[in-house]
Amino acid sequence: MSEPRTELDAGAAIARAIGKVARGFSVTFRQVFRKDATTQYPKEIRPLPPRAHVGRHLLNRHENGLEKCIGCELCAWACPADAIYVQGADNTPEHQVSAGERYAETYQINYLRCIMCGFCVEACPTRALTLTDNYELAFESREDAIYEKWQLLEPPLPLGTAPGTQEGK
Ligand code: SF4
Ligand code: SF4
Questions:
Q1: Could you tell me how far CA 75 lies from the centroid of its own chain?
Q2: Whole domain around residue 85: which residue ranges?
Q3: pLDDT one-digit tens code per residue, 47-63
Q4: Residue 134's domain is classified under what CATH number?
Q5: Assigned domain for 111 exists
Q6: Residue 24 forms part of a structural domain
Q7: For a substitution probing ligand 1, which of 79, 86, 134 has the most ligand atoms within 8 Å of its CB?
Q8: CA 9–ligand 2 middle distance (angstroms)
Q9: Could you give the CA distance from residue 123 to residue 132 in angstroms, rounded to a whole number?
Q10: For residue 86, which atom of ligand 2 is closest to its CA?
Q11: CA 53 to mean position of chain CA atoms
């Protein structure tokens, strides 16, 4: 049978309990007085770091205008989400699209599948494919979420100017 607790023991237990509660609430109060970290997007566009590659893809061209993409499909094979579809075709002297023997006749990226992992960019042997800093990807239909080659060849709109962002202001 245990000894009855003394008043001293009870006082120490109460003091310990108060200490624990005070430590717990100190976390709450520290958060209450911290600077607000909420960004009022899209009114406020917080710039990304200069080397951030987290957004929509871009198909690049050489300085002479020829496409860098040679339609090799390595990006499509590397994609873990099966988001890329490439159909290659041969260049001809009359129809020279890329700097290689072949070019991408069809190039599509499905942004309902893409997880922005960048594996496709790593796999590309010609640096034809890069990720940009434009993360403003919103769609009204499944079809709209599939970007065609002509769209991917265009640089994305600056952040804050995508259709729909103005309505949010
Ligand atoms: S970023 Fe990743 S998920 Fe998106 S298309 Fe490239 S490989 Fe696929
Ligand atoms: S983007 Fe690169 S990896 Fe993909 S088909 Fe074109 S050249 Fe090949």
A1: 17
A2: 57-153
A3: 888 888 889 999 999 99
A4: 3.30.70.3270
A5: yes
A6: no
A7: 79
A8: 74
A9: 16
A10: 5
A11: 8
